[in-house]
Known about the structure:
mainly beta; four-stranded antiparallel β-sheet; globular
Amino acid sequence: MKKRMWAIFGMALITLLALQSALVRPVRAELGGEWRNYTFDKDISAMALDGNILWAGTWGGVLRWDITAGTYTKFTLVDGLADNYIHDLAIDTLDRVWVATDSGLSMYNGVTWTTYDNTNSPIPGNSVHLVATTSDNTVWLHSRSVNGSWGEV
């Protein structure tokens, strides 16, 4: 059985297919395996893994990679994201993807995107830079608009 190790280098997402028995240690040539390069024309700013799906936030939207099939889907403003410049992303236990942008917090439920901003939610400011979820699906965010305070959505 193989495991994958993911790395970000500038505008490239690279994976190392490594043997499952390999010990967890810094990436070194002795791990063996095969490197694959998945380049994209925008910088990658955030990543989260949900089973065989790798989500990547970029400076041009969100990418959803199906690791098994080797395919990806790109989401942008046209698809319902609040902004194409992604700061951070997180996945809750309901498999919803939460995306921090300069224009609010977007949530993908597997079908559609919903955006939360200071006009339709208690978010103190639209410039959301960090997002995290807890095991009970509480969503925490950091907004630069309010002196770097944390808030609960």
